[in-house]
Amino acid sequence: MTIPHSFTRAARNAVETSAMLREIPRTKARPKAQLRRYEVSTLMPNGGVLQTRHIAPALPMFEDAFCAFTRGSLVETENGPLAIEDLLPGDLVLTQDGTLQTVLWKGSVTLIPGREDSHGRTRPLTRIMADTFGIQKPLSGVIAGPAARLLGAPAHLRHLHEGAEILTPVHEFQDGMSVIETLPPTPIELFHICLKRHSVIKVDGLQFESYHPGVNAARQVSQSLRSIYLNLFAHIESLSDFGPLVLPRAGDGEINALSA
Fold first, then answer.
1. What is the CB neighbour count within 10 angstroms for residue 191?
2. What is the Cα gyration radius of the chain?
3. Start and end of every Hedgehog/Intein (Hint) domain (predicted)?
4. Are 167 and 248 in contact (CB under 8 A)?
5. 35-231: which CATH architecture?
6. Domain boundaries, the chain
7. What are the b/e assignments for 119-129, b being 16+ CB within 10 Å?
8. What is the tens place of the pLDDT at every residue in 15-56?
9. What is the pTM of this model?
10. Residue 156's CB: how many other CB atoms inside 10 A?
11. Tens digit of each residue's pLDDT (9 = 90 or more) over 145-191
């Protein structure tokens, strides 16, 4: 994956998004699409950070790029734990294999998890109590977003992939005691980060994945919406630029955990 050598493309992304939304043909049978405001910070070729704001559809593929970590989540960096809201593109985060990877992109969105959208869908958060997965795993109580994935598998999914390591949606670990669903009625700011390659990173003592749209991304978004989606990421030109997954993911095509 390479960072494009153009400031112009990145700067016009936010402006183009609204224009393209107006051009998408609509049928009378479809309800009006709900829109959401997405905040994006991108590492530029000169080392600077470009901040843009986008108005784009409140669709799962769009929201999943922003809805992994809540404010205050501590990401392990080269200089120790750093709150996700203070992390910037250009910072180095520690990955599972012991290497340091540069943050190329950070996105954030504010939503109300307990409020239903136009399709009656909510976006529940998952609260993980301290020491749920062992001593200091997590370090303290953690609230993860709906798009977060953990390295590992709960008991009911351990038969998948012949026991090999997989990345599992955090809600699959809910047990009603140590890991529970929560639907706050007030606005919550959520974040996600994208590295040069898909990686497992440590957040609050747990191993989460960095952002990747998944192996079936091309099937999840129409051609008319694909350009709007790609405009959120100034550091890539196409879906293939996200590269391969570092590990298979439950419920993401390679392993269909949700129907197993």
1. 23
2. 18
3. 67-214
4. yes
5. Beta Complex (2.170)
6. 35-231
7. eeeebbbbbbe
8. 555 555 555 555 445 556 689 999 999 999 999 999 999 999
9. 0.85
10. 10
11. 999 999 998 888 877 777 788 999 999 999 999 999 999 999 999 99
Which amino acid, 29? A
Compute the half-sphere exposure of residue 254: CA atoms within 13 Å on the CB side of its CA.
17
Pairwise CA distance, residues 222 & 142, whole Å: 35
Judge contact between 247 and 167, C-beta under 8 A.
yes
Cβ-defined contacts of 89-97 (< 8 Å, 24+): 89/41, 89/42, 89/43, 89/49, 90/43, 90/47, 90/49, 93/193, 93/195, 93/201, 94/201, 94/202, 95/195, 95/199, 95/200, 95/201, 96/151, 96/199, 96/200, 96/201, 96/202, 96/207, 96/246, 97/199
Count of residues for the chain? Answer: 260
Q: Which residue has the tokens 């879906």?
A: 239
